[in-house]
Design a protein that fits this description.
heterodimer, A: about 550 residues, B: about 350 residues, mainly alpha
């Protein structure tokens, strides 16, 4: 009896000792090699789908476009010239209406637990991918909602007359008219190539909806596992048509809370973190680096022009005048952004320096409100997006500052926020009065700002959440697209910006830099000039000795400060 | 023992009735359509709605509605989450084990630290070590758990870099879901990195478990101290002393056993407290458990998840209470005669 009691007394100590020895005695050999060959990326939200054709959300294209897929052509280099990708070359006829692509013949699709390809990429896959968007009767058109936001906003189906398969590796796009932004649109993250064979397999199994949930592409990584709100796990695609990626496993640790992401970065639980906060802290640490890229984007405060009182132009102007933009930029972006005069950033070639800007003038705002019949003020809601984006690192804080600004002119503000996908869904249903959101360009063509954000077509099916529609504005955009004369295009866009500043469907706030933090052992470019991030060229420093291949340093030079 | 068991069962059923009644009434109190709150099908079409109204007997009186609701619950149909549109029963099955695991480890730590310290304090009653332990317990009890959690992360994760700050395990390890209890799943898995995963999971659980354990540990200190002081003052201890038993014999053979019985009764009560602390801690340490899920549901106004989650959680805590009662009764025959459920 005494013995057993002594034992029970010692059990705690034994357990603790065993526990400690387990932790301390952990043999790091294999762990190191596993973590050496993998990257954990702390991302800011869950993607809505794995098909970038369907969504313009940055979170979605970050998680899918450049990881899982390739497009026919890509942007390369400093000057953003078009370069071959799945199409090894292409040819445009003189009238600009026929564009022929010659495909690579050695491109393998992903082999995963749910699909094994039997053939390489050919023209059928290209037809399948684009007909899914263009052809309303296509078997897959209505799968996942049938909303192809980006393509609808650039009026892709009105532009393309048909797509012809010339032979197995040649495909021709026939356009109804010459469009100066067509090739640029094909080089975006959204114009990805899906597998036609996989589509057929799903049709036979009657599981068509899986095409966007369990994706098959040609990209450098393939999807292994996805848990909403928790993680995305990618494995390397070993039969990639270019040199295969240097890491074997890529994990997106979905951490919507920004201080959580900072903690994980500091505690080395993630190698790379999206949209970090506390820039100075990160810059001071010797084991972390902070990088940024000047991206073409705009953060804005939009009004639902379908809902009272914002159907009144004067109210929209008054609210815009009452907001102290510079204060927002100093606080929210910590000065790391340029004040936006209109939706187009100053770095774009089409930017007109004469663009007028609505200043900060609360007195005039108040008088405008009186003219509009709201002398007593009113109550409104601001929908602040729950995730951090480069164009708006903290929408809720911004909403609070706007709340304080508007209080001065007698307008009461309620701040509303939802989980990201719910937020976007409710926004597209027009439940909001005003909202804080932004836009990141997918390619350098200025049309990519004007058409998706504010045109009448994107009001119905795209990303125009102000529901503003102006015939004159749309007419200007159409004119700008049919001409290739740069100075003419520039003047059309300048006129369009004047209309925006007069009508005020939205108040452009800032053009920012996109920031990213990583451990110093993580090498290779991640941030891309346009669209989503790419982990293709990333590796960990200590892995160099293990690989005998030396990669040619033909990576693009980037603006990294 | 049979009457005792029947009594506990009756008490269980009655309490469950009250709990389901409460969660049932929540559907009426939350904004929105009652049947949608019950089922969580926010995108229901007109025909779906008609079916739901039929299933929940919304056209009949409130008693029928309650019975229909109860039938759904008994069949394990808690509706679906308004936010993720997946069945809540699935989510609970996935998340509850993580909370149980964390709470059990925390409880273990609290008991292993708290009870011996309490005994030491009692044996040295009114001496310096007693006072020191008591003051430590007081300080520990007064520290709010969210602050302690943040401090622990700041010190051990960011400052010293010893322990990870979030999650159950590094995401690099792929552990198949079997029981939901991470350690068991790791041992069952055939991953080549099994032991590394085990170490990694242990490192992940230390900080949150210790943070949760602090407050209950201080309560255990005080409980075990009080119980021990009481036992040491009894006549059979004095008799043992008079017989000439030495100190170790008195403490280990007589005092500890009798004092422990008093403490076991409170373990169940502490468990409820522990789960509450775990909910807050899960948010801080991003622990994928039911507490974090419930708090997220609240912020997303996911009414179905809130009412079903509360029901499942309270049901679970109640079962733990009854289990500890049984253990107590098995250890202490005197308790079985107790006529009133307590």
């Amino acid at each position: 009896m005494a013995v057993s009691m002594m034992n029970s007394k010692f059990i705690p100590f034994l357990t603790i000792t065993a526990f400690i020895s387990l932790i301390m005695g952990c043999n790091e050999g294999n762990i190191l090699s596993l973590s050496e060959r993998s990257i954990i990326y702390c991302s800011e939200g869950s993607p809505e789908t794995f098909n970038p054709q369907l969504s313009t959300s940055g979170t979605t294209s970050d998680a899918s476009a450049k990881q899982l897929y390739n497009s026919l052509i890509v942007y390369k280099g400093n000057k953003n010239t078009l370069a071959p990708s799945l199409a090894s070359s292409w040819h445009v006829t003189r009238d600009g209406k026929k564009i022929t692509f010659y495909l690579r013949q050695d491109v393998n699709f992903h082999q995963t637990g749910y699909f094994t390809p039997t053939r390489k990429l050919n023209a059928d896959d290209v037809l399948f991918s684009f007909n899914r968007i263009l052809n309303k009767d296509h078997a897959f058109h209505q799968i996942s909602g049938g909303q192809y936001s980006f393509f609808q906003s650039v009026k892709f189906s009105e532009l393309v007359e048909k797509i012809e398969k010339i032979n197995d590796f040649t495909i021709r796009f026939i356009l109804k008219r010459n469009d100066s932004s067509f090739l640029a649109n094909l080089a975006t993250d959204y114009a990805v190539i899906l597998s036609e064979e996989y589509g057929q397999q799903l049709t036979i199994q009657d599981k068509q909806h899986e095409i966007d949930i369990l994706p098959i592409g040609t990209g450098p990584f393939k999807l292994q596992d996805y848990r909403v709100g928790s993680l995305i796990r990618f494995y390397r695609h070993d039969q990639y048509w270019q040199e295969k990626a240097k890491i074997e496993q890529l994990v997106f640790d979905i951490s919507p809370n920004k201080s959580n992401r900072l903690t994980k970065l500091l505690a080395k639980e993630c190698d790379v973190s999206s949209y970090p906060i506390a820039h100075t802290t990160i810059a001071e640490r010797s084991d972390l680096t902070l990088e940024s890229i000047t991206s073409l984007n705009v953060g804005y405060f939009g009004f639902n022009t379908k809902k009272a009182p914002f159907d009144n132009k004067l109210v929209r102007q008054a609210i815009s005048l009452a907001i102290n933009k510079q204060a927002l930029i100093d606080t929210i972006y910590q000065g790391q952004a340029a004040r936006a005069k209109s939706i187009l950033p100053e770095t774009s070639w089409a930017y007109d320096s004469e663009t007028p800007e609505l200043g900060y003038d609360p007195v005039r705002a108040k008088s405008l409100l009186e003219v509009a019949g709201y002398a007593q003020g009113f109550t409104m809601d601001i929908w602040a997006m729950p995730v951090q984006r480069a164009y708006n690192p903290s929408a809720v804080t911004m909403a609070k500052l706007i709340q304080a600004d508007l209080k001065k002119i007698g307008v009461k503000v309620k701040i509303i926020t939802y989980e990201w996908s719910t937020f976007l869904r409710r926004l597209s249903q027009g439940e909001h009065q005003s909202f804080l959101l932004g836009w990141t360009a997918d390619h350098p063509d200025p049309d990519n700002f004007f058409t998706p954000m504010l045109s009448c077509t994107s009001r119905e099916k795209g990303s125009n959440r102000t529901f503003w529609c102006n015939k004159e504005y749309d007419e200007l955009l159409k004119k700008a697209l049919t001409t290739t004369n740069m100075s003419k295009r520039k003047s059309y866009y300048a006129q369009a910006m004047t209309i925006i500043n007069e009508e005020m469907p939205l108040l452009a706030i800032a053009h920012s830099k996109r920031f990213q933090a990583r451990g110093t052992d993580v090498k290779g470019d991640i941030l891309e000039n346009f669209g989503g991030i790419s982990f293709y060229e990333v590796y960990k420093n200590n892995e160099v000795s293990n690989t005998n291949k030396v990669m040619a340093p033909n990576k693009k030079a980037k603006v990294i400060d | 023992m049979l009457t005792f068991t029947l009594r506990r069962l009756a008490l269980f059923l009655f309490t469950m009735m009250v709990l389901t009644l409460l969660s049932f009434s929540l559907s009426f109190l939350f904004p929105g359509d009652t049947v949608i709150n019950h089922s969580g099908q926010i995108n229901a079409t007109a025909t779906d709605l008609a079916k739901l109204n039929e299933a929940y007997q919304m056209d009949k009186n409130i008693f029928h509605q309650y019975t229909a609701y109860l039938q759904h619950i008994i069949h394990g149909d808690f509706g679906q989450s308004m936010a993720s549109q997946s069945p809540i029963s699935n989510e609970i099955i996935e998340l509850l084990p993580a909370t149980i695991e964390l709470s059990l480890v925390a409880l273990l730590i609290a008991m292993l630290v708290g009870i011996p310290l309490g005994f030491i304090a009692a044996i040295n009653h009114n001496k310096t070590s007693d006072n020191a332990i008591l003051s430590l317990a007081m300080i520990g009890y007064s520290i709010p758990v969210f602050w302690l959690g943040l401090l622990a992360i700041l010190l051990f994760s960011i400052g010293l870099g010893w322990l990870p700050s979030s999650g159950k395990i590094s995401l690099l390890f792929e552990i198949e879901f079997v029981t939901g209890i991470q350690f068991i799943d790791i041992l069952l898995s055939d991953s080549p990195y099994k032991w590394q995963a085990f170490n990694n999971a242990s490192a992940h659980i230390i900080l949150p478990a210790c943070v949760i354990a602090l407050a209950p540990a201080t309560i255990f200190i005080r409980l075990s101290r009080a119980a021990m002081i009481e036992v040491l003052a009894t006549s059979y201890i004095r008799a043992a002393r008079a017989k000439g038993l030495n100190f170790q014999q008195i403490i280990f053979r007589h005092a500890i056993r009798n004092a422990l019985i008093q403490i076991i009764r409170h373990v169940g009560l502490q468990f409820a407290n522990l789960v509450t602390l775990a909910m807050v801690t899960e948010v801080i340490f991003s622990w994928p458990g039911i507490g974090r899920w419930l708090i997220e549901s609240i912020s997303q106004r996911d009414y179905t998840a809130i009412q079903s989650g509360l029901l499942a959680l309270s049901c679970f805590i109640f079962i733990v209470h009854i289990l500890t009662d049984f253990i107590y009764a098995a250890l202490n025959p005197l308790a079985r005669g107790n006529n009133h459920g307590s």
